[in-house]
Amino acid sequence: MNVCTKCGTQLEDGVQFCQNCGQKRESLVVKKTMSSGTKFGITLLALLAVVIVGLYLYGSSYYKQAAQVDRMITIVQERDREKLAEIVTADDPSVIVTRESLMPLFSYIKENPSYVDELKEHLRIGEKQRDGIEKADFSLTKDGKYFFIFDRYKLKAKTYYTTVLTNEKGTSLKMNGKEIDKTDDKKFEKQYGPFLPGTQVFQAEYKNDYVKLLREEKVVLMKQGQNNVTIDLTLQGQYITVQTNAPGATLYVNQKPVTALAGEEIMWGPVATDGSTTIYLERNGENGRETTKVETVTALSSYNLPFQKKSTEKTVVYNVTPPPTTQYVYNGFIFPDSDIRKLTSADLTYLSKEQLKIARNEIYARHGHMFQTKDMKSYFSKQSWYRENPYFTGKLTDIETYNVELIKSRE
């Protein structure tokens, strides 16, 4: 600077102090002018910082747990299986969640629309507790991050297994209309799964040339205390007892040979009782082939098909239950049809008290009643058709209740 800042005297070049007042000479500060490129860079960085902060604040709101729960509930309400499959995982790693595997859940929601509100409440409680609700069929679980910053949540589904029981060899087992197995034993029991929560429809279908048996059970795999549910698909087929007066006979059903009689009596089935089935016996007699009369199978449990004899003896046409012999049990049953036919006093006439007791209890045994008395437990455990069912409540049909009371009155 060439002028004294105190007195205004013109300063000579090279001097450090004013010649007039002695004031120290100040250094000249040269201000640098900022380039346009530098200004643009600073502005860009400032804008970028604002954008980053804005995106973070938006992400914090959009990806917070409560917001993700709301979007999950919306997907469930809209029944969007494709989107739901993307946000559902199973507690069993072997389960692959697909659109098809979620169909039972939507079947349940269709019949129970209030469940969506229940689910929302469960998940909100889990959001407050920050740990989900493991006892529910669905709970929240963390599954990675969004943009390496925000927690990603999914619905973790509880999986179920089913144990299916049935009683005819060669029965087709179906789930939701699709065959899943074929039984290889009359006393069949097998576990299937795992399944996602929802409503499943199980069917047992048995066919032969003479009968078609079908049983269907709708099973709700939701809100169950245990993850294994037993499904009783026991088929109630009609078995008939055929009696005759000569050994060596062959039973014909609808004009086709089906089995040979070891003695003079056989129990056979299952068979239709709608009038579509006819039976008769045939054997080699003294004069060649002999046949009995033809009978149409109805609700009767026993049929007497005697061969005609040359003597003057009258042929007894069976329409009532004959006096039982010591072989009063037919393939494990005293009355094979006591679940579908009302018994009569005549049916009970020749039974001992022991036989009456067994006849009454076999009505319960069909349902898998678990006996406590030693004698009944021992007796039914030896029957091939008996299987314990811990889920049997003791409820009987009207016909079964009638028969139990009738037998009790004679004991």
Automatic annotation (TrEMBL):
Q: Which domain of life is it from?
A: Bacteria
One GO cellular component assignment for this chain's record is: plasma membrane
| InterPro entries noted in UniProt | TcaA_2nd, TcaA_4th, YARHG_dom, YARHG_sf, Zinc_ribbon_dom
Pfam families given for it? TcaA_2nd (PF22813), TcaA_3rd_4th (PF22820), YARHG (PF13308), Zn_Ribbon_1 (PF13240)
SMART domains cross-referenced by the UniProt entry? YARHG (SM01324)
| Name under which the protein is recorded | Zinc ribbon domain-containing protein
